[in-house]
Write a structure and sequence with these properties.
mainly alpha, 2 domains, 10 helices, Inner membrane-spanning protein YciB, YciB, transmembrane, cell inner membrane
């Protein structure tokens, strides 16, 4: 059973956890100063931010279930990966586990998209985006290849950043850099989307049929 979901709830569920991570990471010193208890004093800002992200992710999944009665496959997959790598990060007190998460996620997406295209001959990105974009099969094939290559590039880029740069740099890249690159990539695909766009069906023809 689905319920009427406020318009702001969707973006809050999608971007809320990463906003919580960013806020806790950069505001942790103030939190410790205000509440100088032993647990907080012994916890690093990155670990605390990761734990907060996990809690926010669980809350987001709960809201999705409450309002929609289900959780979309991609957000559910991402949430599972967050729980696994976030849990390892907190348990072992080692930031590298969570920093590797984007690499693993991007690599899996690339394998699924490119593998589905070349092994099963199916553009698996079509079921995810056909509600937003109406294109021919040729357009979906081209877009699938491009998204697959994009995910490979992002996986490699994340590995370079987290292995060579500071925690602050990686956090900023994670929150702003990767999102910015995704927006730029999607906008750069609009010529393909327009070229292979299918015309909207005529409502009069639908009524006649």
């Amino acid at each position: 059973m689905s319920r009427q979901k406020p318009s702001w709830m969707g973006p809050a569920i999608e971007y809320g956890p990463i906003a919580v991570f960013f806020g806790i990471y950069y505001g942790y010193d103030r939190i410790v100063e205000a509440y100088p208890i032993e647990l907080l004093l012994e916890t690093k800002s990155f670990i605390a931010a990761t734990a907060a992200l996990m809690v926010a992710t669980i809350i987001g999944i709960g809201f999705s279930l409450f309002y929609d009665g289900k959780v979309p496959k991609v957000p559910l997959f991402t949430a599972i990966i967050v729980m696994i790598f976030g849990g390892l990060t907190v348990y072992f007190d080692d930031e590298s586990f969570y920093k590797m998460k984007p690499t693993i996620v991007q690599a899996i997406f690339a394998i699924i998209l490119l593998g589905g295209l070349f092994i099963f001959k199916r553009p698996l990105i079509k079921p995810l985006m056909e509600k937003s974009w109406k294109m021919t099969d040729e357009g979906w094939y081209i877009l699938t290849i491009r998204f697959g290559l994009y995910f490979i590039v992002m996986a490699v880029l994340n590995e370079i950043v987290w292995r060579t740069q500071s925690d602050d740099f990686w956090v900023n890249f994670k929150v702003f850099g990767s999102m910015g690159l995704m927006v730029l990539f999607i906008f750069s695909q609009y010529p393909i989307i327009q070229k292979y766009h299918l015309p909207d069906e005529d409502p009069d023809n639908q009524i006649k049929n």
